[in-house]
Amino acid sequence: MELLVLASGSSGNATLVRAGGVSVLVDAGVSAQQLSRRLRALNAEPAEVAAVLLTHEHSDHVRGLEVFLRRHREAPVWATRGTWSQLALRSDGGGELCSGTTLVFGDLRVTPVSTSHDAREPVAFIFDDGRHSAALCTDTGRITTLLERRMRGCEVLLVEANHDPDMLRNGPYPWPLKQRISSSTGHLSNARSGDAVSALRSSALKAVVGLHLSAENNHPGLVSRTLDEAVERAIPVAAVTRGEMLRVAIGNRGAMLERHDLPPAASRR
Q1: Average pLDDT over residues 219-229
Q2: What single string gives the DSSP state of each residue in 168-188?
């Protein structure tokens, strides 16, 4: 199994999951042009996307979806009923996601799981191809009992580590936004993310990746330190900023993490 983190953070989110010859795209929060350029930079092609799975309707997760679908109409979109209710677009094929109901794409099994976020019906995803497994969970103010149960036993955790509470408290954001971010329907702090990883630590766990870092209220060094402590420095960890991409390859002996620079912007003529 391979996971390509193409974009992460409040400026846009997108991750490609590959397994058994099947590729699914989770979210399309950057422009269609950027999605294509970033996929190709990691030796993937937009045409290989068998389906698009949406975590929720916020713009940093769907910004590039409409144009992407115009160019790749064969890619069906799957989202919860609540998410669909907030979107103006539709796609050929696809349908509704329901928490706990597994979809099958070739060898890849995908199970959505409800999260705690101020969107209509947000979800995280558990991926399993029969050999390897991974969880992708961002945009949640807390790790619920359900999330913990579903994520337990996964080999790779891609989990939100949005903010450092002190940086958020003393930062430039207006007070209502600070309250929203730190609420139980907001975003996970580094400490809460670390607590979740510590609770989920097992002999099966091979790597942990911190996602959706705030550029204003966090620092990748803080995230990496927190995750290192949570796994007792026994496995690789990484924190992905908005200025980079990450390739995660899961094998029988462990997981390999490769950082990649964003491709250069297209030149204007």
Answers
A1: 98
A2: HHHSSS-HHHHHHHHSTTS--
